[in-house]
Write a structure and sequence with these properties.
Length: about 375
Amino acid sequence: MDFLTVVVIYVIVFSLCSYILTSADSKTPGIIGNTRRQLIWLFEGLYYYLLPAKLRTTLQNVFHHIFDERNCYLQVTYCLIVGVCFWILTVQIIPNATAYCNSILFTYAPFVELLTNLYFFISTSLKDSGTLSSKNIDTFINRYPYDGQLYVKGVNCRTCLFQKPARSKHCSICNHCVVRFDHHCSWVNNCIGAFNIKHFIGYLFTIALMCVHVAVLGVYALLNIVYSTGLHMAQYVDSDGKLRPMNFRVLIQHLFMEYPLVVFLTTALGLLSFLIGGFTTYHLYLALTNQTTNERYKKAALKSAKNIATDEHIHRTNNKRKTRHSKNKIKCAVPQYMLTIEGASQFYDHGLSSNLKEILFPCKEKSL
């Protein structure tokens, strides 16, 4: 099996697994949901079959410490990854890409993007996401109205011991409630909430932009190597000892052997461009429609629970009604609350301009 075939198989498997694992959850129906459950079952089976019990316990403790407790491990990891990528960019990609790309601005723009990304990274990490406490709860208790579906008035936080404002949530990692809670991001070691969501979106956008930009420069560097050395017109000796004209597979394999860091980084960033670009687009959609990740999960969980309740209702009715017209009657008997949950995610959507204003200029005192 040649190198190009291995790369293509890797790209396909990596892309499919990433899409399946990130686009569905444990309750997602259909082919995607079933495939995700089968993959997790396979990984868990291999995990418990191949690893001894003591090693599994150690790994679980390590993962719990990294992902379920506040620490700076992933922040340091991110800085190291970015540092290595820009070292490869500076040492191997830019010297080769400059001759192919005549625009100095395009060649060195990633360094400006890096500084912008570091600003958003530090801001998202250090800025208060919207911590709720007994001192400021009165300020935020009426900030958002309760929709009666995802958020119900009168519910108290069992840890903070005060009434939970609408759209807030207690973060078990940070151990406090957060205004307009979106999720906890381990990469920035902070919650994403009302007051740092715009910085988080900027952080994601600049990451996606850097991935695309450096990947394009990597392609330019490889093209310059090919055309400056005449590789595209060269010949190679096959397994039978005969001279053959250069083809794409042999060319890629040769480039990987001679410039492994450039080929690997270009390929990896090309894949990450789609993944991070999709994640950024998702959060932009949430911002433009005034939704949060937490609300999407709450809606999915509530809908699943109510679907189960509706199925049980229909099943009980089927047992009681055996007439020919029972199906039509059952459809009318389905609880009407199923109609209200579909609009729960649009409850806080006040139009594009108002939604953007709330994200970009969050009011810290005035109730909305």
